[in-house]
């Protein structure tokens, strides 16, 4: 038995809850993964997994062993990576998922420079605002805005998005220009809601001016779960928007959106790169994360302490 292979197989079974899915992620047969875990249990003389027809869960001993093995495998990968020659170029496939507006406005336009620097890295890019299961979907990392609620993920704080309130000229001509955020609660006004993939409810950002603080709910004209559709709805005049400044910059310059309540302060939205806790930060992933930090420094630098 190769103990390292057996440990990797066990870790992946725990993370996916299935021998079949673990085998898929390891590009091995289900029989091979089953044999490795059985050999590991025999070697340790401990039952590591509860097996049922629907789910595989670690035993108490298995859970404790998993925590130790995850750290051991990460340390081993770090040692091997540190011994690689500095001149060796990072290479291989990297699966990444980012918010659709971030892909459209920031990441994709900058990719030629990334590929010029790292020509041997192939990016498989998902552009979505949905919640991604990094293990089951074999995704190396995600870029996400907002506070992370999944404590099982490792994350790096890469920037903060400044937010503003906007509406189209056609909307303001029809509904009037609100002088105070509370006016958005009046019957004449409508807002477009951005529906969180985590909660299913529209997000409400607190607004502050001096000692005054409020959260405007407004009357929803529409709620969407995609950032590009959200922006399009605002430009079409369906209602008032809360937008990151990078998304609003060009529509404002083209006269498609008008900023509102500029004397009010909105809490910046943190941006993170997140990845599984047991996923080794390979050199290709490390350089990608560092590049995202560079990119965010240009477009939305971190203004809050890293978490």
TrEMBL record:
Record flagged with keyword Transcription regulation: yes
CDD domains hit by this protein: PBP2_CrgA_like_3
TM annotation in the entry: none
PROSITE patterns tied to this protein: HTH_LYSR
Pfam families: HTH_1, LysR_substrate
Protein family per UniProt: Belongs to the LysR transcriptional regulatory family.
Protein name, as recorded: LysR family transcriptional regulator
Organism: Pseudoxanthomonas japonensis
